[in-house]
Amino acid sequence: MQKGLKFMFCRDTWQRVAASGAWFAGLPATFADALLARAEPVSISAGQRLFARGEVPDGLYCVLSGVVRVTATSVSGQEALLAMLQPPQWFGEIAVFDGAPRTHDAWAQEDCELLRVPQAALLAELAERPQHWRELGQLLTQKLRITFAAVEELSLLRPTQRVAGRLLLMADGYGTWTDRSKRVLEVSQEQLGLMLALSRQTVNQSLRELQSRGCIKRRRASIEVIDVHLLRATRDGI
Which ranges of the chain would DSSP assign to H, the alpha helix? Predict the structure, then answer.
């Protein structure tokens, strides 16, 4: 793995950023302390790949700064964008459970600083305290619920509702963040289109509609969520 940047965060910052997320904040102190004690810093530059589909799993990650792009690529080279992960999201837990190769590619959308709990160290911790498998399972099932909801939206909602739904997911950190009423999401129209299987023109029209309703404010390379309640109402067709 390439390390493109000098890591600037200290251990106190690791804990502060991680604890700002709902999953980590809800962990038993013994498990939270063990994760931080076994974690190591990783820094990668914009455009670098963190890991690739098919690679042997190397551990559980937490985003401390920057954005990680999770993708899949077809044989023809077409890319599907699955998620844009921001602090303090954790990822990589699927391979902790089954030990199978990585399911997707992970890239640094911008300069990123991460924590990695190595696979062997995490499995050793879980072998010593197997009761903590439950907490790791909660991280996995949280994402499974979101996946089912996203599939349902793709099938049932019109484009503007789908865009609103995805912005809500991102604004909530895919279930990671709590108690935030205004958020700036670093995502482009093209990236939203890739995530939702919509054309850029359709996404642009949907964003215009959401902005006219007072839900969001469009910026050059980001979207600011102005009113979560209005955005949720739009998603629900109200």
Answer: 11-19, 22-25, 29-38, 94-98, 119-128, 133-156, 159-171, 189-196, 200-212, 228-235
2-38 tens-digit pLDDT: 444 455 567 778 888 998 888 999 999 999 999 999 9
Q: Is the peptide bond before 28 cis (omega within 30 degrees of 0)?
A: no
Q: Residue 233: helix, strand or coil by DSSP?
A: helix
Look at strands 216-218 and 79-85 and give their pairing.
unpaired
How large is the C-alpha radius of gyration of the chain? Answer: 18
Q: What pLDDT, in 10s, does the model give residues 183-216?
A: 888 888 999 998 898 999 999 999 999 999 999 9
Are 216 and 224 spatial neighbours (Cβ–Cβ below 8 Å)? yes
How many other β-carbons are positioned within 10 Å of the β-carbon of residue 213? 16
